[in-house]
Design goal:
Keywords: ATP-binding, Helicase, Hydrolase, Nucleotide-binding. By secondary structure, this protein is an alpha/beta fold. The protein contains 42 helices and 20 strands. Bound molecules: adenosine-5'-triphosphate (ATP).
Amino acid sequence: MRQVSTSKKGVIHEDLARVLAQVEAELDKFKDLPDGDTILFEKAKWKILLSENFRTSFKKLDSSEMKKLVLNLLLRLSFGLRPRKRKIDIVCENSKQILKHFRVRDVYVLCSIDIVKDSGLCNQVLKIWDIMPLVDVPVLVKRLDAIYALHSEEYLSRCKEKSFEGFLEVPKSWDCDVAHYKSTTNAETGGHHRGDAFSENYSSDSLMLMKFYSLSSGIIWHLLSGCDGQEVDFPFELSDQEKEIVQFGKSSFVLGRSGSGKTTVLVMKLFQREQLHHIALRGYHEQSDAVETDEQNVLKQLFVTVNPRLCHFVKQNISRLKRSTCGWNLSAESCEFDLEEIDETFLSSDFPDSFVDIPSSFFPLVLTFKKFLLMLDCTMGVSFFDRFPEARACQPEKRKNSKSLTLQTFIRTREVNYEKFSSSYWPYMNVKLTKRVEPFLCFTEITSHIKGGLLALEAAGGHLSREDYLSHSERRLSYLTEQERCRIYDIYLEYEKSKVKNGEFDLADFVSDIHVRLRVEGYNFAEMDFVYIDEIQDLTMKQIAVFKHVCRNYEEGFLFAGDTAQAISKGVEFRFKDIRSLFYKTFAMDSGRFGSTSTNTKREISDVLHLSQNFRTHAGVLRLAQSVIDLIYHFFPNSIDELNPETSHVNGVRPVLLKSVDNRSVFKSMSEVLFAGQKKSVEFGAEQVVLVRNEEVKNDVLGQVGCCALVLTILECKGLEFEDVLLYNFFGSSPVVDQWELLHGYMRTLNISSPHDECHFRHFSDEKLKLLCHELKLLYVAITRTRQRFWIFDESWSPMLELWKCKGIVQLQHLDNEFLASMRVPSTPEAWKKRGRKFLHVQNYEMARICFKNAAEPYWETYCQASELRAKADRLRILNPQISQHHLFEAAELFDSIGKDESAAQCYFELEEYKKAGRTNFSSLNLSLCIIHDFHLFYP
Ligand SMILES: Nc1ncnc2c1ncn2[C@@H]1O[C@H](COP(=O)(O)OP(=O)(O)OP(=O)(O)O)[C@@H](O)[C@H]1O
């Protein structure tokens, strides 16, 4: 309570002294290690949001005294204190006094008043943009002013409003929505074309993609402790849409296009639940005398994704978020940590093999889908792999261990995936059946429908009979004729026969077996409280249905996220509404908990939540991506879920369509300039990539550019992002070149004149059409990998390029030397190393090797080379055992040469060179004989 004082001035002085004392007390807490759980600023009035740029500049401040002074200022601002004598408003054109600057000795802290939505209220907050010398202030102000030009009048006026409690300035709140942007800006037209308003300056807009972090005890300690910020992820400020999903209490389906924050939302939700659980536990322990162990109180959360890179990223992200709140001392951890982690921590033999008695320290469990299945296999009854004599060769007690070397080698070499199906099965099938059928389409029908669909789940033997397949295809509006489907079913039968003969299996067999065992034995092991499944478009219905057994919290426990436009996994055909119906039919209804299938019940259980704001890239790229989505809607409405066009608040440079000046070997001349072919120096950087359709084109391009550029197939780039992307010869190498002609007709429907208007279009088989759908999805994935610049270079002209040109969403550019030079952004060794680590996580050893070579890291370069050879040996084991052994031998020697004894021993062991295997470090060999060197590296 305020003390009675003789004069008003006296009261203010006392209050001021009290507030200042609180500020000092808050800062005092950071003299020692933070308590970690303290939520700072209980008495603070303002939410302070720090930008990424501020964090970087702060780290560069030269003295700890200066750092404390800046933090002192931030704390004062958060308490509502404002300098009274100094002028703090920056007057500029659009920002109307919402921009302020505060002097701390010889630098200025630049901040603005903004509005963010929290728990239904729109609140004023302080955004700290940067800290800099006075001379740099005008540049930032100009950039911010350009951003504020996009804001609505109402928004700016509300930011300007002031409110006071005594001498303290306090934030204002409104319980109605405030439109953030002017309705006519590009930011809100999203995918719609506005030919006149493209900004060609992309760099100034990147401020709008900036992450902001709420000022907290963790962040203050982190800023003061001087660790470099790379190893800690603080929860950043989410968008309103993201917050709504994180706060949504029921099971739900999150649908959003690439870069719209799906993974972010899943991770934040998981993290928020961890925190709430932690707080609840602490309260419980404080109030009761119960001495329950952590093992009993653990919150069992499971995060699953197919993609090993994403899995690794999420794992890291979660542990760094945890560190940010636990205040662990990270300064001792070096940058090498990540590399060692791949190499050593993943080798760790203590990672659980099954769902029996998982130690609490392993939660939240972040797994790839395959690891999840293998753990289930080890959990229940007789292993699926016991039916294979080769797998049975391992000792019985080891067989229940998914890390057993023999078992791992078996799995690695005997699983039939699409690549194996097309290379080792397809060529040997009856040509009468395979003629005019695409292996890709056939594999998808087998894996997604005959063996992997919802009906197959209920069917005897786990697969559809011919009759069921034919009639089911009618119902799901298949593009295939009955005759084509009959042939596909015959191919399926032939494939199954050969597979059994070869002693091989596919993922669908494994999943069917798990389903049978789950049904018969039931699942009575670690039951999950919450399950998060990302990139769900990469799973078949039957694969998704496995999750119902490990979590019974159907009402609140499931969060699925995905995007059908990115469904390019070979063998998976997927729509979001199908998993929604799967969820009601198979998950919730099976539980008997909901009793009826009425629509109302469905709504109560869950809903599809959309994310539409893109955080990765700018509107220029999004318009191009949306044009591809529009085509999928038009030609293949059944293969995609409808979503509002994505929006981006950043209006960036239009993608560029490169044209050669003459007709000579285009890529060759391009690579000479662009990749410094002759100079042998690297100038295309670690944040730039050439994307190509397939391995064939990739090898061709790599042959020309060597180590001077990163080259990836579109399948390989899924889940990765780069500053700049060059899409090379996508249309020229298309297997359905003719089908793209369909676009001329489409252009006519849009009243876009095409030079081929008068053409008579051929009739294309439905099967070929389906391939076109796959092409469009590939194109979409390629476009959405870029953050800034997107260049298209094709050796042939395609109607798609015509469409883009006519719509004005690309700009034409002659490939002259000046432009080529502007494309190059060389990278530092550190940046190459960072990119190399990312490739290592996804076992892309070839690209990782290039990165480490460019980073001048010979140890890791050799490591990647050896791993690449070992992976090659695996692939060739059946097709060409001799070359396979040769590669394995080379790998063994390389591992040996860099002291990777255990890896070398494993290679020699596989080569049956036991003497050599024994020569290597024997202590680790014991481990390696029964435990695979790196479970994740080979079979994630
Ligand atoms: N509110 C936000 N503010 C700033 N950046 C954000 C925000 N939300 C997400 N991001 C960033 O946007 C990028 C894309 O986010 P995320 O990976 O979660 O999207 P996604 O929908 O899962 O993408 P994809 O489907 O391509 O994997 C990430 O770099 C993420 O950190």
